[in-house]
Amino acid sequence: MPKVTQEHRDARRRQILAAAREVFAAKGFAQTSTGEIVAASGLSTGAVYSYFPSKNDLVAAVCESAVEDLVDLAALRDPGELLDRIRARHGSHGRLMTQVWAEAAVSPGLAARIRVRLADDQAKVADLIGQDRRSRGLPDTADHLGVAGALLALLTGYSQRLAVGQDMDTPGFRHALEALLGDAV
């Protein structure tokens, strides 16, 4: 019997997480059954359970990956592009992130995992901010970790507002975002 490669296992895990994200975003964590995730993934029940022994494991993995996605967005310097990308995926991602925060608020174990992920992400964004300032020849005097935390909180709040149908893309909002991403950072 051929040995399954790590690349294959990683691809299957991503396939299951993508299916879970889609179903969770559409129906919510509580209303989603593992069977629905199995069906959406196109894999067998045994295959899904071999990667995620319980629905709670799936919820935790989806939560961590959803938070991780903020780092990719935070690396963008152009406020218009940043807001456009968030709006383009606001339907599923915003709904999913709203659920992540709600679930973490009532699950101490998940909250601890999310805090670790957020701290890692904030450090990565702070590093990106420092690199950007150095590449533009700007003094490296800003509190990069504080700015990164503020930027990630702003992106989280923006995504959650989009999830409930409120688009905050106003000139004032863009100006505030430009201040965070601009030379003042």
Q: Can you tag this structure with a few keywords?
A:
single chain; 185 residues; mainly alpha; 9 helices
Overview of this structure, please?
The chain is an all-alpha fold and 185 residues long. It has 9 helices and no strands. α1 (6-27) crosses α2 (34-41). It is globular.
Short description:
The protein is mainly α and 185 residues long.
Distance between the termini: 56 Å
- The SS-based structural class is mainly alpha
Radius of gyration over all CA atoms, rounded? 18 Å
Separate helix tally: 9
Mean pLDDT: 82
What is the N-to-C order of secondary-structure elements (H for helix, E for strand)?
HHHHHHHHH
Shape: globular
- State the helical fraction: over 70%
Quaternary: single chain
Largest sheet: none
Q: What is the strand content?
A: under 5%
Structural topology:
Layout: H1 6-27, H2 34-41, H3 45-51, H4 55-74, H5 79-88, H6 90-106, H7 108-135, H8 144-163, H9 171-181
Helix pairs in contact: 1-2, 1-4, 1-6, 4-6, 4-7, 4-8, 5-6, 6-7, 6-8, 7-8
